[in-house]
Amino acid sequence: MRRPLPCRDCHRPVLWTTTEAGKKLAVDPTPNPAGNTAVWRDGTGALRSRRPTPDLPLTGWERLHMPHVATCPNRVQQLTLPGALPPGVASLDAHLRKKRR
User: Fold this and answer.
1) How many CB atoms lie under 10 A from the CB of residue 2?
2) How many CB atoms lie within 10 A of CB 38?
3) Which DSSP letter does residue 97 get?
4) Contact (Cβ atoms closer than 8 angstroms) between residue 4 and residue 29
5) Where in the chain are the domains?
6) pTM for this predicted structure
7) What gap in Å lies between CA 99 and CA 44, rounded to an integer?
8) pLDDT band (50, 70, 90) for residue 100
9) pLDDT tens digits, 17-64
10) Contact residues for 13 (Cβ-Cβ < 8 A; gap 6+)
11) Which of 8, 25, 99 is nearest to 67 (CA)?
12) CA-CA distance, 61 to 58, in Å (whole number)?
């Protein structure tokens, strides 16, 4: 198995997979039954991932993993930080509200 690489934000190990759309997705290296990403190794040894659906459920060679963006402490903290914007950043909320009227 490929060696996990450290996350740039929290330095925890992550596995990089390629989604069905060809995009890169970081997942936590240990399988997690609460995860929503099916991960498997294809014939070339590359890690692939997809979102299981009722039409295409999890198969025997796939394992559920949690996307790292959902568990990264620095990302979660950034997403949940209410409050003031950093210096030099303007909020466009008022402008967008006027435009929608």
Assistant:
1) 11
2) 22
3) H
4) yes
5) 5-82
6) 0.70
7) 51
8) low
9) 999 999 999 999 999 999 999 999 999 999 999 999 999 999 999 999
10) 4, 5, 6, 7, 29
11) 25
12) 8
pLDDT at residue 89, rounded to an integer? 77
d(CA 16, CA 63): 14
Cα(15)–Cα(25) distance, integer angstroms: 8
pLDDT band at 13 (very low <50, low <70, confident <90, very high): very high
Look at residues 65, 68, 16 and name the one whose alpha carbon lies nearest to residue 37.
Answer: 65
The phi and psi torsions of 56 (rounded to 5 degrees) equal: -125, 80
Say if residue 82's pLDDT is above 70: no
Nearest to 18 by CA among 44, 39, 43: 39
Q: DSSP 3-state assignment of 19?
A: strand
